[in-house]
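Incident log, support desk, overnight shift.

02:14 A customer reports that sequence design results differ from what the structure should imply. Their input is reproduced verbatim below. On-call engineer (initials T.W.) acknowledged and began investigating.
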């Protein structure tokens, strides 16, 4: 299958690479087919979740555990059933990354994207607990935050 993308041009994918959202990404309810594409930088922790139905729509995503080791949540039985999860090891969790500027990058920890790798079904799951936010800064400190603004020592 050929997928047109703004960022990567035309790409050919196998049908088994297609991710189908059982519960769509918030704000994009009419788009359910996506493909996960690697960043051009081979060792980058970021990937692109590209819509197969809208060439202009792609999300930067990442594994939240790489940046937030204490991140955790319990997947509710409703989602386990919806995504037909039979083995916990089949679950892949990604979060959407928002880049406003080089100094302002955040992750949506409140609504992770959960993918069942065994059948490529997915859902964006809104967590009702955990105190997570939709705009968790990716890096703890902004660039230059460790520079002393007053170089005169008292």
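02:41 Re-run completed on a clean worker. Output:
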């Amino acid at each position: 299958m050929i997928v047109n993308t703004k960022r990567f041009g035309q790409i050919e994918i196998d049908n088994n690479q297609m991710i189908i959202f059982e519960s769509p990404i918030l704000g994009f309810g009419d788009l359910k087919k996506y493909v996960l594409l690697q960043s051009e930088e081979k060792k980058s922790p970021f990937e692109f979740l590209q819509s197969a139905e809208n060439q202009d729509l792609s999300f930067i995503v990442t594994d939240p555990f790489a940046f937030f080791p204490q991140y955790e949540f319990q997947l509710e039985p409703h989602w386990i059933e919806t995504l037909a999860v039979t083995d916990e090891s089949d679950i892949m969790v990604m979060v959407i990354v928002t880049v406003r500027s080089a100094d302002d990058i955040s992750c949506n920890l409140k609504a992770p994207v959960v993918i069942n790798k065994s059948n490529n079904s997915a859902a964006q799951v809104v967590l009702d607990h955990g105190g997570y936010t939709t705009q968790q800064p990716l890096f703890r400190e902004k660039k230059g935050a460790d520079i002393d603004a007053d170089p005169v020592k008292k």
